[in-house]
Amino acid sequence: MREYLVELSKYIITFTVALYALESFLIFRLHDKKRQSISYGVQTGLIFLTQFFCFMTLYCKSGDKRYLFFYLFLQVFFLTVLCLTPLIYPSINRLLLHNMCMLLGLGFVILGRLSPDRAIRQFCIAAAVFLAGLFWPALFRKLNLPHQTYYLFYAVSGIAVLSVVLLVGKLTRGSKLSLSFLHVTFQPSEAVKLLFIIFLAAALCQDVSFKRVEIVTLLAALHVAVLAISKDLGSALIFFVGFVFLVFLATGSYLYLGLGTLGGCISAVCAYFLFPHVRVRVLAFLKPFTYIDNQSYQITQSMFALGNGSWFGTGLLNGRPEDIPDVITDFIFSAICEELGVISGVCLILICLNCFVCMMRMGMGLKDSFGRLTVMGFGVIYIFQVFLTIGGGIKFIPLTGVTLPFVSYGGSSILASITMFMLIQSIWIKEREGGSTRGGKQKTAVQKKKKP
Amino acid sequence: MAENKKQPYKKRKNRNIIAVTGFFALLFVGMIGYLVWFVALNEKTLINNSYNSRQKLLASQNVRGSIYAADGTVLAYTDVGEDGTEARVYPYGETFAHVIGYSTYGRSGVEEQANYYLLHTNAPLALRVINGRTGTKNPADDVYTTLDVGLQEAARKAMRGRSGAVIVTEVDTGRILAMVSLPDYDPNRIEELWPRLMEDEESGTLVNRATQGLYPPGSTFKILTALEYIRENPETWQEYTYDCGGAYEEGGSRINCYHGSRHGEIDFEEAFSRSCNAAFAHIGSGLDRESFAATLDAAFFNNTLPVAFPYSQGSVAPLETLSADEMLQTAIGQGKTQMSPMQLNMITAAAANGGICYTPYVVDRVVNCEGTVIRQFKPSVCGRVMSEEESAILRDLMQKVVEEGTGRGLSGLSYTVGGKTGSAEYGKVKGDSHAWFTGFAPVEDPEICVTVILEGAGSGSEYAVPVARVVFDAYFE
Q1: Whole-prediction pTM value?
Q2: For labelling, which of A148, A425, B244, B405 has a CA lying 20 to 30 Å from the CA of A155?
Q3: For chain B, what percent of residues have pLDDT higher than 90?
Q4: Other Cβ atoms closer than 10 A to A94
Q5: Rounded to the nearest 10 degrees, what angle do helices A411-433 and A94-114 cross at?
C-alpha cells in the first residue's frame, strides 16, 4: 500500500497543486462570503495534502528521519499561519496568505529534497520573520507611516546602504551583492527593494508634478546606477521596472511609460556593450548547445531537467536536479519541474500570477493613495522578479540570476518576501479596520462595481 | 498633469491598473506557452545529449528495452547476468549493424533514435512496486521496427561483400523494410573493434552509406531531367527525337554515351530506357534552369531530408550560374551533383506513388514489457515531388527501362518492375563507375521501392540490377 502511494504521489501532488491554482482564480468570482470561506477551507486542505504527499515520498524513499521532524515543524508553522493569523486579524487577505504558504511549502519540499540542512535553516529564518511580521499590522494600526515629506529620507538611506555594499561588499562571482557581519551574510539589495518602493510611493502619492517626477527619476537612477556598478544587474532591472510602472500608475501618463521603456531599451543595449557578463548571458541564451561546456552549462542542464521531468515529473528523489549549478537559488523552478512535473510548474507560475493579480486588486480597493501605490509597487516588483527567474531558467529570456520569492533558498530573499507580503497585509488590514465606516462603504462600492 | 495633481486617484486610473495587470498576465501566458511548447517538442531529444547525466540515472533504474523486427524477431536485447552485469546482444550480428546500431560507445541507428523509449519504463505499477521492494531493475519499454529480417538478409547476401548500400521501403507508407550498408561490423564486438574502426578512416565502416553516403547519381538522375522535360513540354514530349551518334557536342564540350554505344534514331522513351547520355545532354541544354532548380528543390536537393537517421544532404550546383558544359554534365547526373541512396529512394517512391513522398521511418511502435502499445508511429506525408500525371508518365518510362532497356535483368518475372539504372562515373580514371539501380514493383500497384548502389562495381545493369532482383524475389516469393 505504502509503495503504491509513493508511486502515485507524483500524480496526486500534481492534482492538488493544479486544483489549488484553479481554486485561487475561481475565488475572484465569488462574492458570497459563505462560499468564499468554503473555498478558503478547500485551499487550506490542499496545502496540507500537498505537504503530506511530498514529505511522505521524501521519507519513504530516503528513510531519512529528519524529514519526519521537518514535516512536523512545518505543519505546526502552517497551522499557525493559516488558522491563527485570520483569528488575530479577521480582515486579512486570506488568498494572499494561502498563496504565500503554498509557495513556501513547495519551496521547503524541494529544498528539503536538495539539501535538508539548508531547508531547516531557511525554515528557521522564515518562521522568525513571519512571527515578527505578525506584529506589523498591529503596529500599523497605531502608527501612521510618515510619507510625503520623508521620501527623501527613504531614498537617501536606500542609496546609502547600496553604496556601502558597493564599497565593502563581498564579491560573489564578479558581482558585489552581500555584506558579511559576524558570520551572517546578508544581501541588502533585497531589503532596499522594499524601501525603494516605499520611497516611490511616498514621493508620488500626492504630488505628480513634472518637477517631482524629475526628482524621483534622478533618485531612482542613482539606485539603479549603484546597483549596476556593483554588477547586480538583476536587481538593477527590477528596481528600474518598479520605477517605470509606479510612475505610470501614479501619473497615468503613457508618455512617462513610453519614455521609461525607451530609456530601458537604451540602457539594456549599453549594458550589453559595457559588461562582458551580460554578453555571456545573451550568448548562452542564443546558442545554448554551442557553449555547453562553459557559458551555457547551467542553462542546458536546466533544459535537461525540464525535458527529463516532462508533464508529471520523475517523482521526488528520482531526478537529477542537483546537476544544475546553483539550483537552490537560481534554478529552483527547474528542479520543481523535473521532480514534480511541468504541470505543477505551470501551476506554480499561475499561483505567482495569482498573487500579483490579488495585489493589484487590493491596490484598486485601497483609498489611501500611499498604501495603494505601495501595494501595487510591491506587486510589480514581485511579479517581475518571478518573470526574470522563471523566464531565465526555462530559456524564455536571458538568465539574470535572481531568486524566486518564497521558493528559492536565501535568507535575505525570504526575509524580504515575507516582509513584503506582511506589509501589504498591514496596509490592507489598516484600511479595512481603521475608520470602519469609511472602509466598509468603500468595500461595498468595490463589490458593486464588479457586478456588471 | 495639473488635473491629475488635483485629483490623482480618479476612477479612470483603475483602467491603468487593469492595463498593467493585463500586461504581466499576457507576459506570463506567453511564458507558460513557451514552457509547454518547449517540453512537448524537446523532451525526447534532450535525453540523448551526452551532457545529460540523466541517461546514466535511467540506465541504473531500468534494463534497456529490446528491439524487434516487424514480425517480432529479436534484433537487440540486454542480457542480464546472475551477478547483475548487463550485455547488449545483437543476435543477427553484422546484418543489422547500421540500421539498429550500437548503444555502448555512443549510440547510432535505432538505438539512438529510440533511446528515449529504450531507457524509460511504462511497466505496470504493480510490477514496479514489487521490483522496488526487491531492488530489481524495471524493464524499460521495447521497440518494434518496420524491418523485415528476410529482406535484410537477402539484400546483404546479394551484395556479396561489395561496398555499397541497399534500401527497401514501402511505397505508400514510407516504412523502411531493409537498410544495408557495407562494409559493416559486428555490433556485439563494438568495444573490441572501436580502436580499429576509429583509426581506419578510409573504409568508413561506421558510416551508414544508405543515408550518409553521397554519390554522383549518374543516369538515375535522368528521372529528374526527364520529369523536368515533361513538365516543360507536357503536350509535345512524346514527339521528341534524337539521332545519337554516340556523343553530343556543344560549344567545345562533349558528352559520350556509356562505353561508347551509338543509339541511332531514338524517341524520348527510348532515350530514357536505353539511358542515352547524348540525348539527355541535348535535352538538358534546352531546359529552363530556374524551373529545373525548383524541381530539384522539391526532390530534396540542397535540402534537409525528413529522416531520423544521420544523413548527408544531397547537393546540386546552383543551375543559374553553371557554364554550358557543366549544365550538360548535370543533366546526365555527373558534374558536381551528389545524392544519398535514401534521397534517390524517396524520389523513386514518389514517382511510384502518384508523386507523393512519405517520410521514411523505421520505429513502428513502442510497447511496455507486457506488450501494451505505448506509442504507435503512423506514416506521414513529407511532400509532393511531382504531379499525379507526371508520376504516371514516369512509371511508364521506368517500366520500359525494365522491359526494353538497361533494366532487362528484371523482366519476365512473376511480377512487373519499373526502374532506372545508373553507372555513375567517379574519380579521374575513365570507366570506373558506381552501379546504381532504383525501382519499384509491381508496376500496376507499387508496393515496395528498392534502391541499390555498389561502389565502383561497374555498370548498373550488370551489377546493381541482379541485387535488386534478389530483393524483389525475396519480397514476392
Answers
A1: 0.71
A2: A425
A3: 50
A4: 19
A5: 170
DSSP B464: I
Minimal Cα–Cα distance from B22 to chain A, Å? 9
Rounded to whole angstroms, the Cα distance separating A323 from A319 reads: 9
3-class DSSP state of B383: strand
- On the question of pLDDT at B230 being above 90, the answer is yes
Would you say B39 and A275 are in contact if contact means Cβ atoms under 8 Å apart?
Answer: no
Q: Note if the bond before B442 is cis, omega within 30 degrees.
A: yes
Neighbours of A176 (CB within 10 A): 21
What is the enclosing helix (H) or strand (E) of B181? strand B176-182
Chain B residues touching residue A384 (CB < 8 angstroms): 24
Separation CA A359–CA A382 (nearest Å) = 10
Closest among A428, A442, A389 to A91, alpha carbons compared = A428
Which of the four pLDDT bands, split at 50, 70 and 90, describes residue A138?
confident
Mean residue pLDDT across chain B: 88
How far is Cα of residue B216 from the mean position of the Cα atoms in its chain?
16
Q: What cell does A418 get?
A: 515575507
ipTM: 0.89
Whether the CB of B375 is below 8 Å from some CB of chain A: the reply is no
| Residue A323 contacts B, CB cutoff 8 Å | yes
Rounded CA separation B348/B342 (Å):
10
8 Å CB contact between B257 and B278: yes
| B1 contacts A7? CB cut-off 8 A | no
3-state secondary structure of A434: coil
DSSP code for B415: S
Give dist(CA A218, CA A156) in Å, integer.
Answer: 12
Q: Across the beta sheet with A175-181, what order do the strands follow?
A: A170-172, A175-181, A184-186
**Alpha helix (H) ranges present in A80-148?**
85-88, 94-114, 116-133, 135-142
Which residue in A7, A6, A1, A46 sits closest to A23, CA to CA?
A46
- DSSP secondary structure letters along A302-353: HHHHHHHHTTT-S-TTSS-GGGSTTTTTT-HHHHHHHHH-HHHHHHHHHHHH
* DSSP category for residue A201: H
Q: Which residue from A minimizes the CA distance to B34?
A: A396
Using one digit for the tens of pLDDT, what is the confidence trace for A236-253? 999 999 999 999 988 888
- DSSP for residue B140: P
Cβ contacts (< 8 Å) between A251 and chain B: which residues? 1, 4
Rounded CA separation A270/A263 (Å): 10
User: Could you say which of A8, A249, A308 has the minimum Cβ distance to residue B17?
Assistant: A249
pLDDT in tens, A328-359: 888 899 999 999 999 999 999 999 999 999 99
Total residues found in chain A within this entry: 452
Which residue's entry shows cell 481554486?
A23
More confident residue, B389 or B83: B389
Please state at what angle helix A411-433 crosses helix A342-365, rounded to 10 degrees.
40
CA pair distance A321, A303, nearest whole angstrom = 11
What does the alpha-carbon distance between residue A28 and residue A433 come to, in Å, rounded to a whole number? 21
Q: Which residue has the cell 514530349?
A: B237
Domains of chain B: residue spans and CATH: 212-359+378-476 (3.40.710.10)
SS3 B79: strand
